[in-house]
Amino acid sequence: MIDSEGYRLNVGIILCNDEGRVFWARRAGMRSWQFPQGGIKFNESPDEAMYRELYEEVGLQIRQVQLIGRTREWLHYELPERYIRKNSQPLCIGQKQLWYILRMADKESQIRLDCAEKPEFDAWCWVDFWHPLNDVVYFKREVYRKAMLELGSHLTSDKVPVSPMGFLSLRRKA
Questions:
Q1: How far lies 4's CA from each of 7, 114, 130, 144, in Å?
Q2: Mean pLDDT value across residues 12-20
Q3: Pairing between strand 121-127 and 22-27?
Q4: Model pTM greater than 0.85?
Q5: How far apart are the C-alpha atoms of 112 and 72, rounded to whole Å?
Q6: In which band, very low, low, confident or very high, does the pLDDT at 156 lie, cut at 50, 70 and 90?
Q7: Is pLDDT of 30 > 70?
Q8: Which residues pair with 11 in a beta bridge?
């Protein structure tokens, strides 16, 4: 579904394990990595879309995860000009996403990347929470930062600040 402003309605999923590491997946046949995400279908709620995408892309069902939180508002990113399909109607200029954070409540051996007719991913690993900010494609970084900053607070105590700026500044000095 594409809204009246040209944004495709979408959900993003941050799946974490008990150590606070996050699921990071490589797009099939590519070198790019990302969180699971996918479009919301007509007459489908964002929650329904999230669980459908979780199963299609990661092979997990609702009973295998714990919902921790969701962003309060839609987060937007625009596609670079070269990725906009000018001949498609309606024209899609970017994504409008609600982000979810889930905790893995089952064994990681239950993760499967082959539950969709055309698998989205061909490899995955657990990474440190802020790792995706430096690794995701550049035009998604700001949405990732906003989603991770808002949702990461669910994983930490008040004594552990959730700040991507601290992480990024340490990476630059190295």
A1: 8, 34, 33, 24
A2: 94
A3: antiparallel
A4: yes
A5: 29
A6: low
A7: yes
A8: 38, 98
Length of the chain: 174
Residue 118 pLDDT exceeds 70: yes
* Three-state helix/strand/coil letters over the chain: CECCCCEEEEEEEEEECCCCCEEEEEECCCCCEECCEEECCCCCCHHHHHHHHHHHHHCCCHHHEEEEEECCCCEEEECCHHHCCCCCCCCCCEEEEEEEEEEECCCHHHCCCCCCCCCCEEEEEEECCCHHHHHCCHHHHHHHHHHHHHHHCCCCCCCCCCCHHHHHHHHHHC
Higher-confidence residue of 112 and 161: namely 112
Tell me the percentage of the chain whose pLDDT exceeds 70.
89
Q: What is the pLDDT of residue 10?
A: 96
The residue type at 68: I
Pair 89, 112: CB distance under 8 Å: no
Nearest to 20 by CA among 136, 153, 109: 153
Q: Token pair for residue 54?
A: 């979780």
Sequence ranges of the domains in the chain: 7-173
In this structure, CATH architecture of domain 7-173: Alpha-Beta Complex (3.90)
